[in-house]
Model the fold of this input.
Amino acid sequence: MPTRPELTPNEDKRDLTSGSVFANLMRLAMPMVIGIFAIMSISLADTYYVGQLGTDPLAALSFTFPVSLTIASLAIGLSAGAGSVVSRAIGTKDRAKTCRRSTDSVILSIIIVLLISVVGYLTIRPLFTLLGASGDVLEIIERYMRIWYMSMPFLIIPMVANALIRAAGDSFWPSMTMSIAAIINIGITPAFVFGFWIIPAMDVEGAAIGTLIARIVSFVMALWLLIFKEKLISFVMPPLQEFIHSCIDVIKIAIPAALGNAVNPVGVAVVTAIIATFGNEAVAAFGPATRIEAMVSIPMFALSAAIGPMAGQNWGAGHKDRVIESLKQSFAFCVVWSLILAAILYFTSALISPLFVDDVGVQEKISRYLVFVPISLSGYGITIIAAGCFNAIGRPLTGLSNYLLRTLAFYIPLSWIASLMFDSIDAVFIAIAIANGLAAVGVASYTFWRLKKLSPT
Done:
């Protein structure tokens, strides 16, 4: 009977099935703080550069956000599926199975992204016409999205590759890949947008070209790490039946994970519509406030990325107790972090809001949001961490249910009720804080109850 290949010293060093749970979580999460911050900065920078070109280019870029968010949800779903099957394979210490699952995940991602890129490229005009774009704005969108769709494979494949590298217990290099891509994107995009030296000004197309170049660099780095450093890619073609089986395992995680990731943006969109009933000032305040909220939530996003490999490896190894302990420590961090944020923003919100807008009325509303809501942000952190854990252990529908619990049971209904009962935007902000608090209790309780009933397989 053949023996399983032994772990290399490098792999053994990153084995998450032993050692301190807290230390392993921090080792995975800390680099991701930098990487996630870098990725978020790309969107802000591109919006700023394009905004300098005028109203039509900025409107065109705004029209592309729903599409880019949808594609991002797909990429995150594929990454979650790939990371789940590979981290559990790593937990079994079966090197051959790990390489096979990793390779099949990349092949599946390539097939899916090429199909979507082609379909998207061919349907730019009808899709954005359906979304309401017309005239010069539609022409700008078409020029931008032609390049954007060509860059899409260089976005999704590195995301999947980085998820596989994290599944192996290494979050440093994925973080560096994300950071380098962000630095390149932010650094070179102005040259292509406004022109520099021998580079002509390309307006909004320049933003797409800057993104394309940065994504190509990320693509090369991620695949090099996956193939040569981690040695997770096999160049032996699998039997068709085995490949199909691997693809099904990934897709079973990917679809619910993608849907779950899309739930929060949809919830924010609905609450934005509710807040719009209080006037343009309220909407103008809610946008910057939620962006600030996202930035200060980065440590919780990082933990949600760290919990995947931690839970997956230990579940694959049969260490259910370490999975539960990882969640307990992660949830505790979310609560402490929210309390720290609440204290800081209570005293600094009036100083932060003028950085985003000159209107005093809008500034006051941003400040009040930052006073009321951050104390309860642990509810959102607990939700995304719990979902990441369930995706990793192969229970994506449970992960999706956590997102739905927070958004459909608490976030949207309480915001709507507050808008009907009270003629005050403050009431909606307080309702959001209460919704997050209820989500923290509800999701945490449901998570531990569900885990008690599951057994590693």
Notes: Confidence is low (pLDDT under 50) at residues 1-11.
